[in-house]
Amino acid sequence: MTDIRYCLYARKSSESDERQAMSIDGQISEMLKIAKREKINVVETITESHSAKESGQRPEFNILLSKLYEGKFNAILTWAPDRLSRNAGDLGRIVDLMDQGKLIQIKTYSQSFTNNPNEKFLLMILCSQAKLENDNRGVNVKRGLRNKCEFGIRPGLAPIGYTNVLKANRISTVEQDPQRAPIIKEIFEKVAYQGYSGRMVKKWLDDIDFRTKSGCRMPLSKVYVALQNPFYYGEFQYGDKWYKGTHKPLISKTLFEKVQIQLQVAPKQWNKQLFPFKKICKCGSCGGSVTAEIKYRRTKANQVNTHIYYHCNRIKKYDCKEPYITEEELIKQLIGHLPAIKLNTKYLMAEFETEVKRLQHLKATVIDKFTPRFELTQHNTGADNTDKVSSSQTDIIREYLLHVLQYGTPEERLKILGGIKSKFELRDRQLQLIS
Predict the structure, then answer these.
(1) Which of 28, 65, 169, 346 has the fewest CB atoms within 10 Å, counting from its CB?
(2) What angle do CA 194, 199, 201 make, to 5 degrees?
(3) DSSP code at position 295
């Protein structure tokens, strides 16, 4: 008579589909009672916390099969057939060992399977049934999640600023977190209206000791995740589809889109980007310098629009609340100040003469209007405005300055602004002449 040596195998998946299954300790306790009652020789116990959905993915189960093949034991004691397999691959390996005579018996709590055609067939039916349950459960879960999305409820954990609430009908909904929602709304406003970067938001949150639901400080990566999450204006994406949420929006879609513009980062092109209006302006709130940055936005037609924004560099005062202004608006306001600003007329006249000689196709509105009234003369560039100029020369200088501001390149604007002696400050998106 063949000596039967058993290996007790206990498994419990940590996944949600098997949370109701008996624990590993419970399985071992029950099977040891059977072994004692029926005088079963258990030579080894193998336990595992792993899903059996996919073939060959359980390390301890693979060891079990290897030891069966090596002859260290020739039978398995387990709670139920689905503890061994819930997929066709692992089931095939078990049956193959039975066909080879390496596995003599599989004993469960209520059944026993040997190398008998009928018993092997029953084993395969039971394990296949477990696989069918898995497959059906996956289909049902996905259908349930889709239905939840159709009702406007986003599956999963609510983002920071919201909290999951389980209603009496056991339907989970999302409501605003009264403690954190106002803070999340404020970080959107700081980015959109005050030009805060992600790092500035992170520092502000740390300064006010903002904490997540788990009691931790919000990391920089989570700050960016929150700022790019459309859930806050009432929509969410699940799979490839977009859904309208039933939760109360925290911000407007317009505010969200402004934040996305602010978060776009221009490619690093050191010493290539020129922002000519930085040197003539200062911040009207803190007196610090003004900087500029380029933002890119892709349209629905898949075209990329470029926007230049000027704002306080916040070096002098980190939390300066002065908002940004677009370059187009800044130029428009600067043109309005042309009659009152102080000019280095000699410098600008020399630049104009050079421009006329180099670009014969300069706007006819400038050349045709003033050439008959003014004869070009040579001046030394860079000299101070010590010589008096006629009213005709002043008119042509201002018209030339207007032309470059409207149609010039950044390089041309930077050069021509060297002839403006007045200074400006930016306050509430308004350019104010200060000298």
Answers:
(1) 169
(2) 50
(3) E
Nearest of 195, 185, 188, 222 to residue 295 by alpha carbon = 195
User: Residue 162: enclosing H or E segment and its boundaries?
Assistant: strand 162-166
pLDDT for 22 equals 67
- Whether the model clears a pTM of 0.70, i.e. scores above it, the answer is no
Q: One-letter amino acid identity for 276?
A: P
Helices (H), 106-229: 117-150, 181-194, 198-207, 220-227
Give pLDDT, residue 141: 72
CA–CA separation, 84 vs 124, rounded Å? 11
Q: How confident is the model at residue 423 (pLDDT cuts 50, 70, 90)?
A: confident
Angle, helix 391-407 to helix 327-336, in steps of 10 degrees: 170
Nearest CA-CA partner of 148 in 226, 241, 225, 229: 241
pLDDT category of residue 227 using cuts at 50, 70 and 90: very high
Task: Determine contact, residues 112/105, Cβ cutoff 8 Å.
Answer: yes
Classify strands 241-244 and 235-238 as parallel, antiparallel or unpaired: antiparallel
Determine the Cα–Cα distance for residues 344 and 169; give it in Å rounded to an integer: 78
Separation CA 11–CA 30 (nearest Å): 13
Q: How far is CA 382 from the centre of its chain?
A: 50
Question: Domains along the chain?
Answer: 6-136 (3.40.50.1390), 162-262 (3.90.1750.20), 264-324 (no CATH), 343-419 (no CATH)
Residue 306 identity (one-letter amino acid): T
In 10 A of CB 146, how many CB atoms? 15
Which has the minimum average pLDDT: 184-188, 189-193, 264-268, 365-369? 365-369
- Whether residue 343 has pLDDT greater than 50: yes
pLDDT recorded at residue 383: 44
Mean pLDDT of 301-330: 85
pLDDT at 59 over 90: no
Burial of 173 from C-beta contacts in 10 A (0-12 / 13-18 / 19+): middle
